[in-house]
């Protein structure tokens, strides 16, 4: 457990005043939590936090019913010192900016319904055991505040076991995956992550390839096989890519299986063949072709090369920044 968090929790626990009031307010639950959020932040933040809180509060308080609740401040403070204030203080120790805390609470107001001692502390210890630093913990929770609601036993532990099955248990690799893409923890291992990994194996990826996918492109594991990966595979096959070629492209650039066919893959392949007059196997040699912007990179550089009647490989054309590209081909004015 990070020392700063322990210190914060300890000092807060000594000041807690537990209240058991359960008065109900005739408003939608989401709206009530947003109003509670404004009350809490205004009471315990800095001047910048309070200014930001006012903006959030006004945004969430446009309805007449919300304004009525504003007048009943006592009701809004139900459970204030029991859960809300301690949670906000702990979030502040994890966040570097007041805006981050306010944004996290706005995205997931129910984060304030969880106890620091019963929920947040065990989570912090769990993530720390995976080699995740306090700063990284803050980033994860503030990006995906729903993490607070996840069960360690029934969800997070299964996630760790799954990533371990991909041989990612060394050198804090599991922690790196979770930090890189915190939203991966929201997906079911059995319904989403494992089926996706099995599909990737079925098209030719090895265990080592899957490790690279998990570490560098964890978002690929989160996509639905039937709705996204299979349609992309079918499109690549229809354009003439062989089984081995597809495996090679996916191994080097996994996002090719999750990019939009109509907005990304098709325009780039048409430009490759119809405009540049190149072959598909050139993409197999340089799969990162699909990573580059069509307008800002592919079209602009192709035009510059055509003006000078210069021929080169895709990697020579694209695998460098603009300054090096111009210098390499003598295009500097």
From TrEMBL:
Signal peptide: none annotated. Pfam families: mTERF (PF02536). Keywords: Transcription, Transcription regulation, Transcription termination, Transit peptide. The keyword Transcription regulation applies. The keyword Transferase does not apply. GO terms for biological process: DNA-templated transcription termination. One of its GO terms (molecular function) is nucleic acid binding. InterPro entries: MTERF, MTERF_sf. Belongs to the mTERF family. This is Uncharacterized protein. It comes from Anisodus acutangulus. The lineage of its organism: Eukaryota, Viridiplantae, Streptophyta, Embryophyta, Tracheophyta.
């Amino acid at each position: 457990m990070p020392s700063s968090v322990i210190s914060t929790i300890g000092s807060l626990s000594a000041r807690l005043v537990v209240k058991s009031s359960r008065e109900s307010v005739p408003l939608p639950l989401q709206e009530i939590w947003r109003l509670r959020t404004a009350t809490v932040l205004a009471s315990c933040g800095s001047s910048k936090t309070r200014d930001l809180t006012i903006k959030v509060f006004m945004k969430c308080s446009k309805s007449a019913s919300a304004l009525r609740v504003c007048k009943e401040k006592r009701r809004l403070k139900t459970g204030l010192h029991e859960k809300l204030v301690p949670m906000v203080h702990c979030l502040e120790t994890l966040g570097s900016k007041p805006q981050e805390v306010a944004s996290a609470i706005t995205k997931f107001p129910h984060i304030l319904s969880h106890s620091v001692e019963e929920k947040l502390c065990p989570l912090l210890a769990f993530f720390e055991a995976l080699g995740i630093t306090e700063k990284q913990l803050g980033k994860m929770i503030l990006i995906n505040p729903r993490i607070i609601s996840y069960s360690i036993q029934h969800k997070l532990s299964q996630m760790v076991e799954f990533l371990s099955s991909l041989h990612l248990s060394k050198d804090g690799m599991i922690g790196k995956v979770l930090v890189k893409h915190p939203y991966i923890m929201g997906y079911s291992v059995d319904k989403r992550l494992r089926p996706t990994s099995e599909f990737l194996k079925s098209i030719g990826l090895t265990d080592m390839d899957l490790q690279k996918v998990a570490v560098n492109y964890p978002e690929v594991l989160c996509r639905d096989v039937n709705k996204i990966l299979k349609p992309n595979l079918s499109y690549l096959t229809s354009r003439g890519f062989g089984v081995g070629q597809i495996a090679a492209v996916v191994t080097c650039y996994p996002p090719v299986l999750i990019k939009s066919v109509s907005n990304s893959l098709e325009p780039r392949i048409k430009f490759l063949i119809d405009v540049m007059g190149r072959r598909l196997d050139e993409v197999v040699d340089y799969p990162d072709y699909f990573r580059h912007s069509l307008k800002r990179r592919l079209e602009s550089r192709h035009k510059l090369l055509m003006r000078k009647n210069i021929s080169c490989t895709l990697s020579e054309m694209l695998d460098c920044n603009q300054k090096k590209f111009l210098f390499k081909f003598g295009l500097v004015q």
